[in-house]
Structures are given as structure tokens and as C-alpha cells.
Specification:
By secondary structure, this protein is mainly beta. It has one domain: CheA-289, Domain 4 (OB fold (Dihydrolipoamide Acetyltransferase, E2P), Beta Barrel). It is 11% helix and 44% strand. Strands 8-1-2-10-9 form a five-stranded mixed sheet. A five-stranded mixed sheet has the order 3-6-7-5-4. The longest helix is centred in the C-terminal third of the chain and has 10 residues. It is globular and about 45 Å long.
Amino acid sequence: MEDSINKIKSYLSFKLGVETFASNVSKVLNILEMQEITKVPKAPNYVLGVINLRGKVLPVIDTHLKFGMEPIQITPSTCILVMDVIVENKSVMVGALVDAVEEVLEIDDKNIQESPTIGSKYRTEFILGMIESGENFIMLLDMDMVFSLVDIEELSKNMLVPEKTETAK
């Protein structure tokens, strides 16, 4: 009988260019205002660098580049979504730069449509499904797949963590 009960899940919607995407809120740890990002040598092109998040190094990804779009243009609405992704059963934190955060959506599983398999400009393994929002669609992302094992391994292998320096008081 439980199979017939629809499950409602919460998603945080955000903008990348003119497109709207959403991630399950369980993956979003924090939303940060834009801040200075320290560049890291030999990082993949979609990695803008790192920031200090409560004493931990957080890699920051240009989500535009990750999705094959033009690089992000920083505006007052640009923010960093601190995401908790699971890679090989390990929790890893990654910062995803987005144009703007929109709203939290309560979505019933029965309203989620399958993503198209032909002609999509985005890699379909990233997309859990789509929902209608007025005349447009919102793509629901599988954040674990967006930041896949290959990406995390590449980040770990290629990124040299900048040394901490004392700041003058």
C-alpha cells in the first residue's frame, strides 16, 4: 500500500543563465554570498578555485562551464551553493556557483516527468527529471552525478591547496 502513496520532496531552485534547475534540499548545506576565490594552479577549467569555509578548503565550481555553457558572469545575485555530494560512499563538500537562488519547491513524485533523451543540450545522466513551471520546465539535478567520481578525483589530484598565511591585525 505504501507504493501508492506519493512522496513529496523539497528542492531548491536556482538559475544558470535563462535555465532553471533544482537540487534536492538534502544536498544543499549552505548558500553563501559571492566572495573572493583563491585560484589554484592546474585545476580543471570549470574549477574557479577554493574558499575557506569554517577552516576547510572548499573547491568552487563554475556550474556554467560544468554544463557546457559560457562562463558565469558575476552579478549581485551570484552565490555559492555548498553542496554535499556522495562519492564512493564518502560525503564531499563542493561549492557550486549559480546565477541566483530562487525558491524551495515542494514537488510530488507523480509530477516529475522523465527528461528527454534526444536533443538535450545537457548530459541526461545529471537530470533526475523535469517539472513544469508555468510555460517553462525546471530540471531536477542529481548532484551526486553532476560532481561525479572523475571530477572529485581530478580535483583531489590536481589541486594544490594554498598554504595558509597569517593576516596582519
